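Backbone-to-sequence.
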């Protein structure tokens, strides 16, 4: 009898969208509409794109993550309302953080409204143009090992992904932690191992992500069993030791730790773990996403040799005018480079969906739907970026989509690689600068070509949370 009552309650829950006249796929008890996601057959990003494509006439589509009701928005005006206009009703991301089980989850990317507002206000100056210019030379220095690494395999086929991840680790090491990591020259590097183990699709990581996302109540009780405490301790200890060393020797390195230390000085509390959490989100966000964007950009340049050559001409022309040196202002002058990077992020958004959670009841403009507090909203970035209404022939890589007149002809919210509104990616300018510097150096020094081992179809690894190719990106690299 108890089971039957429980089943009836679940059935009522998963009838919510139907009762409110919102179309969507048929749900099933306990698993809702995401059975393929739960068993690892479809990534959550591809799931949102699939739903986006299946309901072309709808402004919104109702789905269920288990018994949790989720609204997938298709209409760009509604997306703008959620992310920008009525942001105060959707401040929370809805990802949830559990600082009891995962101390490093108390970061600006995951915390709820109250803590987010404080952290965002304190962290925003860290990414100002002035601060980025001071770190520019640190980024340039990280490209020397990159060129040395690829020169050693001149004329051979290389899986670009792992190389770019090591470059990203070197950048994060020197810019965030003030440490010379040399992951590109050391295959046994501890930083690289920590990044790899965080994203590695192990059973433990698979279950941890599923429980956090779709069974948060259960995760509150057993989440500690799935926590990688060694990884948590590594970053907290590293941050604490780094801060103590700098204070003892009065060191200043113009990196993130220097800038974040002011938060500690202005706090009455023990702030080591909070600082470690912010550095950790820089590490996580800057490691996989930046590396994949560089890899995907190089992949498309290898396929489209005429675009590669045009970009190389622009790079060489700018370098001549700057006495052979890459400068901060010189990168700003490379307009075609910016188009190439923007088109890469359009076709391959590393985070291919984003989400929000309502912090109060909310009525959607132009509809009869009012959602209760706590409703999850999914924004299908990959679906929007591959919509032929906004991007004709969306599977074609075409940097000219980002000419000023083309951008002005597209509706707002049709391009969301970094999100939008107050809770967009705080490090987007740093990320684009990191990507552009790497692409400049690669195209300046190497010719990149596809080969027999290249998966030109870019088969997606459905087991991963972020967009990634199942078969890697294997390309022939030839020194110029």
């Amino acid at each position: 009898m108890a089971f039957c009552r429980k089943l009836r309650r679940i059935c009522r829950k998963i009838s919510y969208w139907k009762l409110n006249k919102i179309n969507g796929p048929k749900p099933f008890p306990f698993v809702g509409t995401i059975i393929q996601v739960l068993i690892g057959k479809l990534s959550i990003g591809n799931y949102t794109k699939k739903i986006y494509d299946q309901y072309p006439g709808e402004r919104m589509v109702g789905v269920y993550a288990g018994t949790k009701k989720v609204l997938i928005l298709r209409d760009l005006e509604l997306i703008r309302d959620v992310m920008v206009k009525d942001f105060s009703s959707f401040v929370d991301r809805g990802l949830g953080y559990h600082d009891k089980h995962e101390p490093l989850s108390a970061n600006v990317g995951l915390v709820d409204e109250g803590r987010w507002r404080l952290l965002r206000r304190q962290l925003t100056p860290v990414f100002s143009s002035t601060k980025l210019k001071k770190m520019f030379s640190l980024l340039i220095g990280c490209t020397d090992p990159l060129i040395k690494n690829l020169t050693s395999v001149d004329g051979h086929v290389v899986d670009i992904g792992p190389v770019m991840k090591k470059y990203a680790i070197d950048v994060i090491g020197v810019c965030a932690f003030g440490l010379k990591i040399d992951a590109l020259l050391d295959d046994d590097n501890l930083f690289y191992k920590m990044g790899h183990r965080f994203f590695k699709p192990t059973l433990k990581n698979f279950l941890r992500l599923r429980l956090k996302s779709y069974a948060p109540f259960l995760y509150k009780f057993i989440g500690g069993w799935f926590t990688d405490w060694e990884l948590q301790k590594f970053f907290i200890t590293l941050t604490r030791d780094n801060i103590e060393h700098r204070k003892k020797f009065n060191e200043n390195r113009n990196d993130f730790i220097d800038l974040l230390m002011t938060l500690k000085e202005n706090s009455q509390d023990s702030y080591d773990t909070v600082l470690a959490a912010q550095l950790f989100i820089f590490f996580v966000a800057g490691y996989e996403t930046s590396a994949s964007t560089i890899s995907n950009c190089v992949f498309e340049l290898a396929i489209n040799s005429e675009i590669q050559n045009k970009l190389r001409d622009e790079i060489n022309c700018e370098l001549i005018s700057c006495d052979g040196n890459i400068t901060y202002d010189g990168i700003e002058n490379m307009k075609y480079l910016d188009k190439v990077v923007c088109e890469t992020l359009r076709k391959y958004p590393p985070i291919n969906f984003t989400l929000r959670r309502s912090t109060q009841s909310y009525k959607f403009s132009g509809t009869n739907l009012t959602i209760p507090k706590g409703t999850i909203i999914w924004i299908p970035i990959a679906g929007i970026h591959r919509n032929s209404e906004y991007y004709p022939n969306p599977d074609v890589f075409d940097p000219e989509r980002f000419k000023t007149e083309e951008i002005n002809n597209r509706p707002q919210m049709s391009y969301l690689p970094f999100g939008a509104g107050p809770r967009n990616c705080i490090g987007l300018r740093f990320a684009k600068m990191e990507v552009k510097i790497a692409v400049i150096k690669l195209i300046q020094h190497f010719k990149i070509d596809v080969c027999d081992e290249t998966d030109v179809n870019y088969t997606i690894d459905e087991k991963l949370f972020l967009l990634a190719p199942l078969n890697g990106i294997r390309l022939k690299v030839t020194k110029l």
